[in-house]
Amino acid sequence: MQENGSSVWLNGSLIPWHEAKVSLHAHTLHYGLGVFEGVRYYKTVDGHTAVFRLADHIKRLYASAHIVGLNIPYPSTEITGATLELVRRNAFEEGYIRHLVFLDEGVMGIYAEQNPVSVAISTWKWGAYLGQEGKDLGARLMTSTFVRQHVNASMTKAKVCGQYVNSVLAKWEAIKHGFDEALMLDVEGFVAEASGENAFIVREGVLKTPPLMGVLPGITRDSIMAIAKEAGFTIKEERLTRDELYIADEMFLCGTAAEVTPVRELDGRRVGNGEVGKVTRFLSERFHDVVQAKIERYKGWLTLI
């Protein structure tokens, strides 16, 4: 069981966790039309708590809502302030923040444009998303039988609640087959991403990742690319086939929850030498230096509590 914060922010008020109530007839609960964000915050090297790239996450939350036609009834400044106050109130040194925008009770049925839009913010403690063994030694992946949605079947640039059923099915399938995570292909058979993370490989010294065609623009993905570019790595955004991943020298996943997680195996095939590669290790360590405010030029990504 995860440890939840004692307070939540719901529709303009900070209230105790146990008092947060949602109607059984909330439209999003039935049909999935809602958007969300996940944000991490960290204890910095000087003992403060800092939220990582909060402004970018809030910007994406509003972009997601705009894409699916939801009007968030609060300005972004209020959501930002509420987020920081909630983190202070719940007093975890490190944790995870979830912003949720959902259609509340009103009309049932597919068309419910006039239903009120509700907003909730909560926090909890969250360790290594794919387990500490996966973090330390590398995760084991399988290629899912479920494919990522086509760009005209879903809004792939929005973080939409209902679209994650696709991820849930893929993840459950992978776990039931004894793996840690699922690799997902697009409708043309090219690599898209994992169930909740962006994918990178290293091959012959080049860092490669799929382009943002049918993939959510990951904020951690963007961070890793900026860190890698600054460190002098060659980066290519190009279509990748599954067999190119089999013969990669290294592979890793990244995302807000997963941070940087190495991959040691895909579909029963060892990736590289089956150990955490030197590029992956460098980027993982560099990323943690960034979020802990150890590198001056990246401190602009941190919002201190």
Nearest-integer average pLDDT: 95
Record field, number of beta strands? 16
Order of helices and strands: EEHEEHHEEHEHEEEEHEHEEEHE
Helix amount: 25-40%
Strand content: 25-35%
How is the biggest beta sheet arranged?
Answer: 9 strands, mixed
Count of helical regions: 8
Oligomer: single chain
Poorly predicted ranges = none
What overall geometry do the principal axes of the alpha carbons give?
Answer: globular
- Termini separation: 26 Å
Structural class: alpha+beta
Radius of gyration over C-alpha positions, nearest whole angstrom: 19 Å
Which short descriptors sum up this protein?
nine-stranded mixed sheet; 16 strands; 28% strand; 28% helix; 305 residues; 8 helices
Description:
- With 305 residues, this protein is of the alpha+beta class.
- Helices cover 28% and strands 28% of the residues.
- Strands 7, 8, 9, 10, 11, 12, 13, 14 and 15 form a 9-stranded mixed beta sheet that branches. A 7-stranded antiparallel beta sheet has the order 2-1-6-5-3-4-16.
- Strand 13 and strand 14 form a beta hairpin.
- The protein starts with 6 loop residues before the first strand and ends with a strand.
